[in-house]
C-alpha cells in the first residue's frame, strides 16, 4: 500500500515514515499543498495522511483537491482537534481524523480500517498451500478450511503481516497480551506456536513456515508469500 504523507514537521515525517515502512507501507512525504496535489495527479496512492497546517496552503484545500481529482481516502493528522476542525474536515470528505500526539499502532489500525471501508485493503494472503481471507476470517490449507482459535489466528496474521521479521519471544508475548487481554506466559507461547505449526505446516516436526531463530524467537518464511 502506498501512502502520501503531507506534513511539514520533519520530526514527525521521519518518525512516522520509519514506523510505517516497518508495517510494510510505502511512504512518500511532502510538506506543502502544491507538491501534494502535483503528486496526486501524477501517481496512484492508496491513502493520504494530511496535516491541516502546511508549509504552503492548508490541509483543507489539499483534501478538496484530492477528492476532486481521485477517489483516495484521506486521514487528517492534526493538533487542531476542536469540534470545528473535525467537522470541517469531515464535511469536505475526510475519511478519519486523528489528533496529535497519536500512538503509532493506533494510527496503523485506523489506516487499515479506512482502507477496508474503502475496499482497498488486501483481503487474501497466499503462502504456498495456505490461503487466508482476512475479510472473512477464514484460513484454508490445500483448499480445506482450518479451525484456528482466536489467538492462533491473530498470531498467524501477525507473522504474515511482517514476513522475514524476527519476533523475540518477549515481543510475541506482548502482542498476545494485547490480543487476549489476559496474561500469556512463556510456556503458553510455546504451546500456541506448536499448535499453529501442527495446523499449517506440511511437516510440523520440520517447520518451514514458522522458523525458530535460536536464542531469539521466531520468524515467518516469506519466500512463498503473496497477496
Give a short overview.
The chain has 8 helices and 13 strands. It has helices at 10-22, 33-42, 59-69, 83-91, 104-117, 150-161, 169-180, 186-200, and strands at residues 2-6, 26-30, 47-50, 74-78, 96-99, 124-127, 130-133, 138-141, 144-146, 166-168, 210-213, 217-220, 225-226.
Q: In one word, what is the shape?
A: elongated
The separation of the N and C termini measures 11 Å
- CATH first level of the largest domain: which class? Alpha Beta
Helix content: 40-55%
Largest sheet: 5 strands, parallel
- Rg, Cα atoms, Å: 20 Å
> What's the arrangement of strands in the largest beta sheet?
2-1-3-4-5
The total strand number stands at: 13
Class from secondary-structure proportions: alpha/beta
Weakly predicted, low-confidence segments: none
CATH architecture of the largest domain: 3-Layer(aba) Sandwich
- Number of separate domains: 2
Strand content: 15-25%
CATH topology of the largest domain: Rossmann fold
Mean pLDDT: 86
Order of helices and strands: EHEHEHEHEHEEEEHEHHEEE
The number of helical elements comes to 8
**CATH homologous superfamily of the largest domain?**
Response regulator
Helix and strand topology:
Blueprint: E1 2-6, H1 10-22, E2 26-30, H2 33-42, E3 47-50, H3 59-69, E4 74-78, H4 83-91, E5 96-99, H5 104-117, E6 124-127, E7 130-133, E8 138-141, E9 144-146, H6 150-161, E10 166-168, H7 169-180, H8 186-200, E11 210-213, E12 217-220, E13 225-226
Parallel strand pairs: 1-2, 1-3, 3-4, 4-5
Antiparallel strand pairs: 6-7, 6-13, 7-8, 8-9, 10-12, 11-12
Helix pairs in contact: 2-3, 6-8
